[in-house]
Amino acid sequence: MSEPRPAVPGGPAPLAWRVATVRGVSPASAHARTLVLDVPAWPGHRAGQHVDVRLVAEDGYQAQRSYSIASAPEDTGVSLTVERLDDGEVSPYLTDVLRPGDGLEVRGPIGGYFAWDVVAGGPLLLVGGGSGVVPLLAMLRHRAHAGAAARARVPARLIYSARTLEAVIDRADIERLEGATEVDVVLTLTRETGMEWTGRRGRVDRGLLAEAGWPPSAAPRAFVCGPTPFVEAVATMLVELGHEPRHVRTERFGPTG
Amino acid sequence: MADRPFIARGFHGRRPQAHPERLPPGQYETRDFPVLSAGPTPRVSLAAWDFTIHGIDGGSVRWTWDELHALPRETPTVDIHCVTKWSRFDTTWEGVSVDTLLDAAAAQGVDGGAYVVAFCDGGYTTNLPAADVTGGRAWVVWGYGGGPLPPEHGGPARLLVPHLYFWKSAKWVRGLRLLARDEPGFWEELGYHERGDPWREQRYRGDP
Amino acid sequence: MLPEEMRLDGNAAGGALRELFARDVTAGLATCGGCGGARPVGALLDYGTPLGVVLRCPDCDHVMLRLTQVGGWLRVDLSGIAILALPNVPAS
After folding, report:
1. Which of A22, A57, A103, B49 is 20 to 30 A distant from C63 in Cα terms?
2. Are C27 and A43 a contacting pair at CB < 8 A?
3. pLDDT band, very low/low/confident/very high, at B14 (cuts 50, 70, 90)
4. Residue B101: its H or E element
């Protein structure tokens, strides 16, 4: 690896691959783990940004994927929450093989479109499907650092669609954010069969967006992230409900893991 | 970067080697059929669909969907190899040999040169040496696995040139332009190989 | 799965575009050379991976950008973008 030029936060700089060190791993759901990375010369990031991860095998075979940053800019370390896709080739490595002390090649932070800061204002309407909730949680964690007065100026709502209760990412932390930082959270489960779940079931539809989202008159900043069909359906419904297209920002997650 | 890359401990990728003699270098076998496309699925009605060969002197010959199906059918079973390193064995197709189409074109005075460019709905193109689409090694196929060719795999019809990397087997194909000089296609313009023989690992421009 | 169910967006191309522009362009506005519509680069539709990046206009499907990194070269076709407008203070 060549040493990257010193990066200036917020300034133009070449984006280099860096070898991060895995500091810790912890479960985020039944299918997802969070990796906490120490990245040398990390210039800082904005909530919603991602990193590219590159894996190179002994024989030169390479695989590359993008993962959203789960941690707030204010947190120490860079956390990635990775959902394991059983027939994937990168996500099973990240969730099953990688352990503390290992190196991991990353470049980032990447992205300025699907990114949000408290100073950008709100209200905030976050709609996530599956692991697409990860960058949205980074936004809520960033907002949680802002203090009560700033938070009061940026009310936030999260609509999160997961397959089952055990697939919900960072459920305890979502409940903490809901209780401690005044986030309205609506969780809907699309494939939950257990009787203990008494909450909402089924896909995110127009009725749910109208009821649990903000009215267009509140001019919320909407961030929608998840699998491509989910993102496109939700973004279309938000615009049909009267939200400004330029205030609906989207990020599609691919099916390859 | 000239530096050695960082090797990820314990990473081997997804490469079971079931039939090493059938795998070109650097390939792994998959039982899936990954979908790679440079654009959305084109929508064209079969009534409006046609296949056209444009000759080197400006002449052309055109087949409708029904006319193409009236030509002698072949059902090749072949291995396919993608430049992104997956290979899939024993895929079964139904279609017409490109030889049949070029012979019919020549009979009508539509002649070719040393190169062809396949053109497609959605704007995709790929270039091939004419020698690689003749001699019983290339087809225009509309059937896959005993059924119609699904749209995500190039239906209603695609080119099939299994001895070259699969980006040459253009999806949603609508015809061939016969050329005297080579003319790079969609990916070839951006550095992918003019010919793309997987056994010689002709991935990128300049590969021998 | 159809290609349109698998497509990503300009956000996913952000890393490759950073190698080209040495600054974030996903928040920039790209005017389509086909239909004239302007969209953030992050909102363009991304097809074509892993051979390369193909960004298309969400309104008219016109190819706005093609990018490959193969054989030791970075190659880009920007002819489908009429105007690229970037914030003068790059976000990152």
Report:
1. B49
2. no
3. low
4. helix B98-107
Residues of B in contact with A56 (CB under 8 A): 5-8, 11
pLDDT of residue B31: 87
Of C3, C63, C77, which is closest to B152 when you measure between CB atoms? C3
CB pair distance less than 8 Å for C9 and A252? yes
What is the pLDDT at residue A76? 93
Which residues lie closer than 8 Å to C36 by C-beta, 6 or more apart?
C82
Q: List Cβ neighbours of B95 (8 Å cut-off, separation of 6 or more).
A: B73, B74, B76, B139, B140, B141, B142, B143, B157, B160
Chain A residues touching B8 at Cβ < 8 A: 55-57, 93, 102-105
C55-80 burial: b if 16+ Cβ within 10 Å, else e: bbbbeebbbbbbbbbbeeeebbbeeb
Shortest alpha-carbon distance between residue A10 and chain C (Å): 4
- Confidence (pLDDT) at A221: 97
The percent of residues above 90 in pLDDT, for chain A, comes to 86
Question: In this structure, what token pair is assigned to residue B163?
Answer: 């001895």
Does residue C77 have a pLDDT over 90?
A: yes
> Computed from CA positions of residues A236, A237, A242, A246, in that sequence, does the dihedral angle turn out positive or negative?
negative
Give me B95's structure tokens. 């279609």
Of B164, B140, B144, which is closest to residue B83 (Cα–Cα)?
B164
Residue of C nearest to A256 (CA): C6
Q: For the ranges A113-127, A217-231, B3-17, C62-76, which has the lowest average pLDDT?
A: B3-17
Please answer yes or no on whether A102 and B7 come within 8 Å at the CB atom. no
Contact B39 C2 (CB under 8 A): no
**Cβ–Cβ gap C92/A14 under 8 Å:** no
C-alpha C62/C-alpha A190 separation (Å) is: 35
For B204, the closest of C1, C45, C71 (CB atoms) is C71
pTM above 0.85, yes or no: yes
- Rounded to whole angstroms, the Cα distance separating B177 from B127 reads 9
Residue B41 in contact with residue B48, Cβ under 8 Å?
no
* Percent over 70 (pLDDT), chain A: 95
Nearest to residue B97, comparing CAs of B47, B53, B133?
B133
Q: Cβ–Cβ of C73/B187 closer than 8 Å?
A: no
Please give the torsion angle defined by the CA atoms of residues B119, B123, B129 and B132, in that order, rounded to the nearest 10 degrees: -60
Partners of residue A100 in chain B, C-beta under 8 Å: none
